[in-house]
Amino acid sequence: MTGRSITELKVGDFAEFSKTVSETDIYLFAGIVGDFNPAHVNESYAKNTFFKTRIAHGMLAAGLVSSVIGMQLPGPGSIYISQELRFLAPVRIGDTVTAHVEVKDLNIEKNRVTLATWCVNQDGVRILEGDAVASPPKKVKT
């Protein structure tokens, strides 16, 4: 399985991935990355914060962008080079997050694609946004 090469992409191409974030997702993510901030894992603490409940790690939502880049656009074989992010709204347990990745610019000589990236929740509220750069897979000549 190989993703799309630079010559198979065009500005405006896009792909999306959606996931409903569960309490288990938050605990598993905390365990994987070692971030047990009580804003994420302690409801008693979180109810006294600005958000009034636990929120998911921002990077958990950003990871959904990575899923789109690695599995869909450009897809398998791509190398994720950089990501700029702005976190705009929280993700709560039970929110369905949709990651959107769209081709913004192509640099054929350097085999680089610039991607507009963002995530929205089930209400269409944008929770994060930024630009990414990836190197699409090169097609093997047979």
- Cα distance spanning the termini: 15 Å
Main pleated-sheet profile: 6 strands, antiparallel
Rg computed from alpha carbons, rounded to a whole number of angstroms:
17 Å
Number of domains in the coordinates?
1
H and E order:
EHHHHEEEEE
CATH class: Alpha Beta
The CATH homologous superfamily is termed Hotdog Thioesterase
| Residues in helices, as a percent range | 10-25%
CATH topology: Thiol Ester Dehydrase, Chain A
CATH architecture title: Roll
**Unreliable sequence segments:** none
Q: How confident overall, as mean pLDDT?
A: 96
Strand content: 25-35%
Count of extended strands: 6
Which structural class should the secondary elements be placed in? alpha+beta
Shape: elongated
Report on this structure.
The structure is a single chain. With 142 residues, this protein is of the alpha+beta class. The chain has a single domain, classed as Thiol Ester Dehydrase, Chain A (Roll). Helices cover 23% and strands 32% of the residues. The chain is built from four helices and six strands; from the N terminus they run E-H-H-H-H-E-E-E-E-E. Strands 1, 2, 3, 4, 5 and 6 form a six-stranded antiparallel beta sheet that branches. A hairpin with a 5-residue loop joins strand 5 and strand 6. The radius of gyration is 17 Å and the shape is elongated. The model has no long low-confidence stretch (mean pLDDT 96).
Describe the secondary-structure layout.
Elements: E1 14-20, H1 23-33, H2 38-41, H3 43-46, H4 58-71, E2 79-83, E3 86-87, E4 96-107, E5 112-120, E6 126-135
Antiparallel strand pairs: 1-4, 2-6, 3-6, 4-5, 5-6
